[in-house]
Amino acid sequence: MGSVLVGLRALQAVVGLDEFWSKRLPASREGTSWSDILETLVCYRLIAPGSEWKLHRQWFEQSAMGDLLGHDYSLVEKNALYRAHDRVANEARHAVAPTPGVAASPQRALGNDSSRSRTLTQTWGGP
Hints:
8 helices
């Protein structure tokens, strides 16, 4: 449970991933928790990088992620993992709609949240 707990708490408390995406990716009518799927995908990439197939078939079952998020195995149904990527990409395209002659930046995507904006800028470079 150690690495999953530390990773999840870091994403929630330090980065604020859950708060940021839960506003932008509300649960579906069927109850699919897109923000929890995204947290699972990010933790998985940080702790044990691999394919979505491996996450679906092996990692989630062997980790404490489901217990920590309060979900069962249905959270990582293979198609939901790919749909979560699509939803995040779609949201990112809308958040950073290109303006002719203006480069997209983390600041535009995150609005006025300067601490997250600085973190992204320091991590990936930018203005």
